[in-house]
């Protein structure tokens, strides 16, 4: 092992010894996600609409029919994942697909009456979930916290990592 490799290893070892797990963003995000998922299941008392599907239905309900590409951008989801999700949702008749009248090469997705009913049945519990998740924060800190989360989530790549 070269001297520089030994120095790197020693430096990494020191960093690992002093690392505060509770201060690591990955650790905290996993805790937050687990809390959210557990509360989502218990508050909505259903398993028909996942949190991601909720986002799809909400986007379609609020903005009307859109192409899969626009929908993927709107909910920050990669197109392959969205495609699979839309297949399942269309199979359950929560959404429908039709040719895009503006561009026959693409399809347009829209919420169905069944999808709208399912969404509206979950919305009150989703609002309660939002309040429960933010309850540990002072009211004046909640909007700032959400703004910070959005800034992190929407940040473009950092130096040395590829844009996606």
UniProtKB/TrEMBL annotation:
SMART domains associated with the record: HTH_MARR
InterPro entries hit by this protein: HTH_MarR-typ, MarR/SlyA-like, WH-like_DNA-bd_sf, WH_DNA-bd_sf
Membrane-spanning intervals of the chain: none
UniProt-recorded Gene Ontology molecular function terms: DNA-binding transcription factor activity
Signal peptide: none
Record Gene3D superfamilies: Winged helix-like DNA-binding domain superfamily/Winged helix DNA-binding domain (1.10.10.10)
HTH marR-type domain residues: 22-154
Pfam families in alphabetical order: MarR
Coiled coil: none
GO-annotated biological processes: response to stress
PANTHER family hit by this protein: TRANSCRIPTIONAL REGULATOR (PTHR33164:SF95), TRANSCRIPTIONAL REGULATOR, MARR FAMILY (PTHR33164)
Name of protein: HTH marR-type domain-containing protein
């Amino acid at each position: 092992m070269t001297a520089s490799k030994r120095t790197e290893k020693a430096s990494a070892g020191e960093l690992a010894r002093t690392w505060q797990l509770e201060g690591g963003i990955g650790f905290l995000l996993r805790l937050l996600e687990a809390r959210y998922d557990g509360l989502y299941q218990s508050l909505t008392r259903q398993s028909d609409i996942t949190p991601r599907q909720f986002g799809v239905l909400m986007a379609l309900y609020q903005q009307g029919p859109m192409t899969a590409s626009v929908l993927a951008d709107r909910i920050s989801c990669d197109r392959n994942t969205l495609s699979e999700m839309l297949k399942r949702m269309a199979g359950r008749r929560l959404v429908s697909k039709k040719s895009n009248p503006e561009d026959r090469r693409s399809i347009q997705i829209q919420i169905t009456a069944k999808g709208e009913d399912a969404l509206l049945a979950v919305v009150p519990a989703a609002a309660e979930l939002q309040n429960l998740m933010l309850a540990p924060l002072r009211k004046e800190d909640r909007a700032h916290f959400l703004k910070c989360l959005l800034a992190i989530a929407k940040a473009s790549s950092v130096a040395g990592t590829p844009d996606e």
